[in-house]
Automatic annotation (TrEMBL):
Keywords: Membrane, Quinate metabolism, Transmembrane, Transmembrane helix, Transport. Pfam families: Sugar_tr (PF00083). Residues 1-204 form the Major facilitator superfamily (MFS) profile domain. The keyword Ribonucleoprotein does not apply. It comes from the Eukaryota. It is a multi-pass membrane protein. Belongs to the major facilitator superfamily. Sugar transporter (TC 2.A.1.1) family. This is Quinate transporter. SUPFAM superfamilies: MFS general substrate transporter (SSF103473). One of its GO terms (cellular component) is membrane. It comes from Hortaea werneckii. InterPro entries: MFS_dom (IPR020846), MFS_sugar_transport-like (IPR005828), MFS_Sugar_Transporters (IPR050360), MFS_trans_sf (IPR036259), Sugar/inositol_transpt (IPR003663).
Amino acid sequence: MVCRKGNWNRLVIGNVMMIFMQMAGSNAINYFSPKIFKSIGLGGGSTSLYATGIYGIIRLVAVLIAMYFVVDKFGRTKMLMSGSAVMAVGLWFVGSYVKVANPEESNNIGPAGYVAIAMLYIYAVGFCFSYAGIPWIYCSEIFPMNLRSIGVGSCTATHWLLNFVIARSVPYMITDIGYGTYFVFASFITVGIVWIYFFVPETKGLTLEDMDILFGSPQATSDVELGIAADSEKRKHEIDSTHVEISGASTTD
């Protein structure tokens, strides 16, 4: 059942979406935000912790607004692409700033450093309006009922597997490649925008039956063909009945 056309498409899209969600780098910042802010030039433990607290508050407010007021208005794919664009701009800027200014060694943050911090906050807003909640919504609504537990379970497993990879690798990435850490995540986000545009169909407002048609399920195609055939047969019967009535009336006259 999973490997049938239509079901396989959904499974691949759901799992790839979870991969891009993790490789967007949000959990890297969540887990190691003091180290991240220190790499931008925020020295002192208390200062980086304050910056981390502000980051968390911004995320909370943004995700509440996105999930309660925005997601069903603009759709899944538009929010994923627009939020990803915001995230990509933020991380490309931060990576470029760290590469050029090397603020951790110079211990001087400067005006551009504060812009980089603002970009991280803007990145957080972009994430909350895209990957923070939409992959979970998308994966919960695309699978048919008989495969929902398998499909959602597979996507969840992929999510936590990549979460483990991020948690283990990011400290080494920050130490070994520095600014390249931001470029890696920004690159995945940029590729994700292209992938969403070409391969992820919009599901806003669709029913389970619509999902089968959208993803090309053979059963859905058969059902549609049977429905069309039934409607055609019904219409043909109505036309024949009308023709008989008209013929009978003409004979009587």
